[in-house]
Each structure stands twice: as structure tokens, then as C-alpha cells.
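Recap slide: Rhodopsin domain-containing protein, sequence and predicted structure.
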Amino acid sequence: MEVFAILRLFILSSFFLFQYVIATEPTNATSIKDAPACAIEQFSQLVDQPTFSDANIKRLCHDGSLANAACSTILMQCSMRDLFDFLKLEQIACGRPELDNDHKIRGVNYAILGIVVVSVTLRILVKCTGFSQWGPDDFTVIAAAVLTVLQCIFMGLMTFEGLGRNIWIFNDETITKFYIYLLVVQYAYVLSLCLVELSILFFFLRTFPDQSFRTLVKLTIGFDILTTIIFSICGAFQRQPFYLLWEGWKEFPPQGKTLNILAIILSHAGVNLVLDIWMFVLPLTQLYHLGLKPKKKAGVMLIFGVGIFLIAASCIRIPYLLSFSKSLNATCEFPNQVLPQQGVSLTRE
């Protein structure tokens, strides 16, 4: 009897596990009429009957307000998978081609990876040959390069987990893995950004002897480290329990405790923008006291002029951060956020 009881238990558990796996897979349907029942019910309340008449489908494809209203209603009343399946079938019904930008992202990503590796290798060779002495600025920029390489590696892995394509064509396991990789990439970026800023500040300490200036630089170093620690802690605790950082996408409204993620993103971008401007202005006040020849002085000022590009890049990145923070299609929107930030890191290094 115990054998039969165990067998029944195994069959039942296998059935429920199979049902769970099926539920987390994207739909194989090709007609919007076969959308999830909950999604159809919500959409039918927004249009005239019959629900999927040619006129209604045409409106759905060309009327952005109707499409947004349908998404909002389905999101509030149905499961996230129901919404994803509806969006997938809407794309088919409207004849929109599937996004396939993963190979482009890999190309840009590996180009950045190559530039970082070559640049840091050349810097190490210059130091090893004795042309210049090692300093804290060298060690911090090497550590930043290691984190940038880690970021590039995980960006490459993310292209195999949905990055550059529409999120609704992937199953739950793939999307969850994408968010885990996303967490690693974001932390690698925040820490590498801090280390590159520290490298520049340590370079200032090696270059300029003025004590008042050095005090300002040391205070800036402390501020940079402190804000990075604060934002890292806020990032780790933005969703509670912790596993919701990669599992929380499945539920709306968000479950557990949630910090104001948009405020964290904007605060981090704002602090770094102010820091960019400050670090650009800071050394310019000292250049005319170095006694350099006009040519060398112009060259040094040109080097610091790269800061203008960094400030502009930081400003350009903010709208993409806002867009990504509100997007349900994270695998599609994330490249718009991460590629500008990789460019900023690369320019700094």
C-alpha cells in the first residue's frame, strides 16, 4: 500500500510541476483571439463588440492611447504572464517584426571590452618599464577595469537571456536569470564608476601640491566613497525580501517592501553629474600655478576638457534611466540605459 501511495504522490506532484512549467512558458498561439481569458475580458471592456473585429484590431495597432489603456488594465487585473502573452499576440496581429538587436549589442559590448583591456594593458606596461611610478590612481583604475570587464562579460551573457529582444517571448526562468545578471551589471557599474572617480582624484593629489587644493580633493574622495556606499545599500534593499530583486517582476503591484526606485536612480545620476562638474572645474583652478609652458598647459587643459564630454554623456543618460525605470519591457529598454553608461566608464578610464 505504501508503494502505491508513494506512486500516487509522485504522479500528482509531477502533474502539478508540469502545470507550473507550462504556466511559465510564453503562449504558442498565433492569433490574438487566443489570448488569455483574463486579458480578453479586460480588453473587451475598452472596445465595441465583437472584441476582435478588424476595426478594433486596427485601433489597437495604431491608437497608442487604447494600447496603453489595455496594457494598464490587464496589468492591474491579470497576471504578468497574461499581459506578456497579450503583447506577444498583439505584435503578431499588428504585423510588427520581432526585435533582434542582441548581435548588435554583443558587437558594441565586445568592442568596449577590447578597448578597456588594451588601454589598461598599455598602462601597466608603461608602469612596468619605469616611465612612470605606480600610484593609487593606477591601482584604482585597474580595479575599475576589472569591474568593467565583469560588466561586459555579463552583458554578453544577458544577450543570451533576452537582452535586445522583447521580454514577452521568453519564459519565466529566462526573465528571472536576466534580472539576476542585471543586478550584477548595475553593481559593477556603480563600483567601477566610483573607482574611476577615485583614480582621477588620486591623480590630482599626485599632480598638484597646493595644500588647500589637496584638502578639497581629499574631501571629494570621502564624499565619493560615502555616496557610493549609501547608493549600494539602497540598491540592495530597494526590494524586500531580497529575492524580489529578481523575482519581483512577476507581480503587480509589487509585493513586499519597495523603496522609491526612481528616486534612487535620479539621486545617483544627479550626484554623479554634480561630481563630474566639480571634478572638471577643480583642476582648472590650479593649472596656471604650475609654471608649465603654454603648449603643455594647453595639452593638460585639453585632457581635462574631456570632462565636458562626460558631463554631456551623464545628462544624455538620465532620460534613458527614466524610461527604463517605468518600462515593463526590460530586455528591450535596458540597452538604451547600459550602453551610454558603458561609454561614460570607458571614457573615464
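The longest strand covers residues 239-240.
The radius of gyration is 26 Å.
(End of recap.)
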